[in-house]
């Protein structure tokens, strides 16, 4: 088995497949970014060509910053995403700690119930969610989006974090209890630092769909003051005329936070994904 893994042909084939997948995944991003710096005519004439002295244009970014309230949309998306991730990680870690640490009646049933949230899309309950938000007066508020995204991300967070928390040494936790530490102190000071790779993995897996979501902002928060970046970008898409310069520029700016998050947490993300394989 080790010899097969060390075979140069297998290594080259694996790296080749990974490089090919990376190129396929980054190709749409590359096309969006390079065309955001072109004039409308050159976007359709040579969509795959790099911008040159003749085709280079910043009209798309100028339109985004002037016509659309981009900074408000960006602020709303940032608030919703950061708050949702905070509650997902906090409540998900607490629930995962309880399920992995304590044995109580219904422990397994509770774990299976939470796992159903991974298999059943939350959009199935859109009508019921909208009705609930209307009754509670939360329509056209960012808090409505935060509640929905928190509920959407908790099942996956609990599933991933509970598996990691089962690997935390029992001796370490028992030593903390002998020293008089409370369960909250053990959780925050001893357990959480050891599962940071898993928390980074959960954060990245949840951040991307929250940041890119169009469905719930369109239904729950379509007002101008609560529009997210994805929904706000639709202002440049008309029924008869679409300002592709502005659309591509807005999408390019929307990509930046996701890329920044990956760069910051890439090491923790990879460690979280591969830790089970090298155990």
From TrEMBL:
GO cellular component: plasma membrane
Record has Transport as a keyword: yes
Protein name per Swiss-Prot or TrEMBL: Carbohydrate ABC transporter membrane protein 2 (CUT1 family)
CDD domains named among the record's database cross-references: TM_PBP2 (cd06261)
Keywords annotated in UniProt: Cell membrane, Membrane, Transmembrane, Transmembrane helix, Transport
InterPro entries (UniProt xref): BP-dep_ABC_trans_perm (IPR050901), MetI-like (IPR000515), MetI-like_sf (IPR035906)
A GO BP entry: transmembrane transport
Database matches in Gene3D superfamilies: MetI-like (1.10.3720.10)
Compartment(s): Cell membrane
Membrane spanning stretches: 12-34, 78-99, 111-130, 142-165, 186-208, 246-265
Span of domain ABC transmembrane type-1: 74-265
Acetylation keyword on record: no
Membrane topology reported for the UniProt record: Multi-pass membrane protein
Family statement: Belongs to the binding-protein-dependent transport system permease family.
């Amino acid at each position: 088995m080790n010899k097969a893994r060390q075979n140069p042909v297998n290594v080259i084939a694996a790296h080749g497949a990974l490089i090919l997948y990376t190129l396929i995944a980054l190709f749409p991003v590359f096309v969006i970014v390079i065309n955001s710096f072109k004039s409308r005519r050159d976007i359709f004439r040579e969509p795959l060509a790099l911008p040159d002295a003749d085709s280079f244009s910043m009209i798309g970014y100028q339109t985004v910053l002037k016509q659309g309230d981009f900074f408000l949309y960006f602020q709303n998306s940032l608030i919703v995403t950061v708050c949702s991730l905070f509650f997902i990680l906090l409540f998900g870690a607490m629930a995962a700690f309880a399920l992995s640490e304590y044995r109580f009646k219904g422990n397994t049933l509770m774990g299976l119930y939470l796992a159903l949230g991974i298999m059943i899309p939350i959009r199935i309950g859109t009508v019921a969610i909208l009705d609930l938000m209307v009754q509670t007066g939360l329509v056209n508020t960012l808090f409505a989006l935060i509640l929905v995204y928190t509920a959407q991300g908790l099942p996956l967070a609990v599933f991933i974090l509970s598996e990691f928390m089962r690997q935390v040494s029992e001796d370490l936790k028992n030593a903390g209890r002998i020293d008089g530490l409370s369960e909250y102190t053990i959780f925050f000071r001893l357990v959480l630092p050891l599962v940071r790779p898993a928390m980074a993995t959960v954060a990245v897996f949840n951040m991307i769909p929250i940041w890119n979501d169009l469905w719930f902002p369109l239904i729950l928060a379509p007002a101008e003051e609560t529009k997210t970046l994805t929904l706000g970008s639709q202002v440049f898409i008309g029924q008869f005329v679409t300002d592709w310069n502005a659309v591509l520029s807005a999408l390019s700016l929307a990509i930046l936070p996701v890329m920044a998050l990956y760069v910051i947490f890439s090491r923790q993300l990879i460690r979280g994904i591969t830790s089970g394989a090298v155990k």
